[in-house]
Specification:
Largest sheet: 6 strands, antiparallel
Strand content: 35-45%
Number of helices: 6
Strand order of the largest sheet: 1-4-8-7-6-5
Helix content: 40-55%
Radius of gyration: 18 Å
Length: 162
């Protein structure tokens, strides 16, 4: 019985280690020397959510519904080769463990940028963008309960006038 309990504890710990989220990655890397780090809290999103519609390409776009639904926004960037490799490895584990869906990939002259989401047909619960170029890695993540349809409308409006 003790063996079964020990195995279950080890499995739980291993899944917890793989299921790091944006917050956990931010906490792990944000204090490293040379690491650029930004965190925006839910309180700030509530305050930002009160701004009026933004004019973009001669079209008013209401970002407030998306902004108010966010619960955390994390940015990490490093040009330190060792930290970049470690961050990229952890981000890739996080993406695989979270069953993220690849939205877009762009490659150009050794630089690669990928965007992922996770959620259901109606809601995006997490968005991740990771960009890598030589020894530099940038990670952007935001969480919340964002309406997929509203996000799509917002993107369509901003792209329509280009």
């Amino acid at each position: 019985m003790k063996k079964i309990y020990a195995i279950l504890v080890l499995l739980a710990l291993s899944f917890t280690a793989l299921a790091q989220g944006g917050r956990e990655l931010y906490n792990k890397y944000s204090d490293l020397p040379g690491m650029e780090a930004v965190y925006i809290s839910p309180a700030m999103f509530r305050m930002i959510g009160k701004i009026p519609d933004v004019e973009f390409n001669d079209e008013d776009i209401n970002f407030s519904a998306i902004i108010k639904s966010m619960t955390g926004f994390y940015i990490l960037n490093t040009e330190n080769p060792k930290d970049a490799a470690a961050l990229l490895a952890d981000v890739n584990k996080y993406i695989k463990a979270g069953k993220f869906e690849l939205l877009m990939e762009a490659k150009n002259d050794g630089e690669a940028t990928r965007m992922y989401t996770v959620g259901d047909e109606k809601t995006v619960t997490s968005f991740v963008m990771v960009s890598q170029e030589k020894d530099e890695v940038s990670f952007i993540s935001f969480d919340g309960k964002m309406d997929r349809e509203k996000m799509g409308e917002m993107i369509a409006k901003s792209a329509a006038k280009k």
